[in-house]
Specification:
It is a single chain. α1 crosses α2. The protein is of the alpha+beta class. β1 and β2 form a beta hairpin. The strands form four sheets. Strands 4, 5, 7, 8, 9, 10 and 15 form a seven-stranded antiparallel beta sheet that branches. A six-stranded antiparallel beta sheet has the order 6-3-17-16-11-12. The protein has a single domain, classed as Phosphatase 2c, domain 1 (4-Layer Sandwich), CATH 3.60.40.10. It is built from five helices and 17 strands. It is globular, with a radius of gyration of 17 Å.
């Protein structure tokens, strides 16, 4: 499988496994979004085949699952807001809501993640100015399914994984600087004027039977890649697996908001 990343390089991932997907396959999806055990508000949001977390003031868990055609040019995304006070949930909601509006015109594009990310960035900046704030933003982990291809884009530390043949591989690139026990995000959507948004983007073949995980750091800060692989490397229904991921992160302390979005191509 080959993922072409950025504009001037190609990254090869398991080239001996590249297989064309069946055109009539379905994309099975499931998402769970939880406030966690410590936070008083939920700054995570998502876009999942028309679904998003609409009530940003609620701390109740949100979950959706279903199937769409692989040819539907559908979008799946996880957003983790930042900015303090109520700004984080506003930024991630803006991202999810812009995604909803944008995908109504998605058939006009073959690949739309970069223009969508640019539009989200602009809209969050406008909202920041309208609220007289210094800064607010959101991470983004986005995956577009278009026929037998996938397109991915990420900004910040929300991750995208692929599980194939019992092997879990991180496809996204983290935009962070670590200092001791703290980390600073160097790329996000909502970057103010004077800073250049530079999300990571790649493309490849969506292989039948592969699974994809998009998640916020509320999952990855609590669980290792090996633990994530062990949980999702199962033929159980995706809603059960997504819930199991969230529960495992909660059992480890649930110190941050938790969002896990799983995809699987099914015949």
């Amino acid at each position: 499988m080959v993922l072409q990343g950025g504009s001037d390089h190609t990254r090869t991932i398991n080239p001996d496994k590249e297989v064309s997907a069946v055109r009539k396959n379905k994309v099975e999806y499931a998402v769970v979004c939880s406030t966690g055990k410590i936070r008083r508000n939920n700054e995570d949001n998502f876009y999942c085949a028309g679904h998003l977390r609409e009530d940003v003031n609620s701390t109740a868990d949100v979950a959706f699952s279903g199937k769409v055609d692989a040819d539907a040019n559908e979008l799946f995304a996880v957003f983790d807001g930042m900015g303090g006070e109520a700004c984080g949930e506003v930024a991630s909601f803006v991202a999810a809501n812009v995604s909803l509006a944008f995908t109504r015109e998605k058939d006009a594009y073959r690949e739309y993640l970069k223009p969508l990310a640019a539009q989200i960035n602009q809209r969050i900046c406008q909202e920041t100015e309208a609220r007289s704030l210094v800064l607010m933003g959101t991470t983004a982990a986005m995956l577009q399914v278009c026929g037998d291809e996938i397109f991915i884009l990420n900004s910040g530390d929300s991750r995208i994984y692929r599980l194939s043949g019992h092997e879990l591989e991180q496809l996204s690139t983290e935009h962070i600087v670590v200092s001791g026990s703290s980390k600073a995000i160097t790329q996000f959507l909502g970057m103010p004027e004077g800073y250049e948004p530079a999300p990571y983007a790649a493309r490849g073949r969506y292989r039948s039977g592969d699974m994809y995980l998009l998640c916020s750091d509320g999952v990855t800060d609590m669980l290792t890649d090996e633990e994530i692989c062990r949980i999702i490397d199962d033929r159980m229904d995706l809603d059960v697996l997504a819930r199991a991921l969230a529960d495992a992160a909660l059992d480890r302390g649930g110190v941050d908001n938790i969002t896990a979005l799983l995809l699987r191509l099914t015949k």
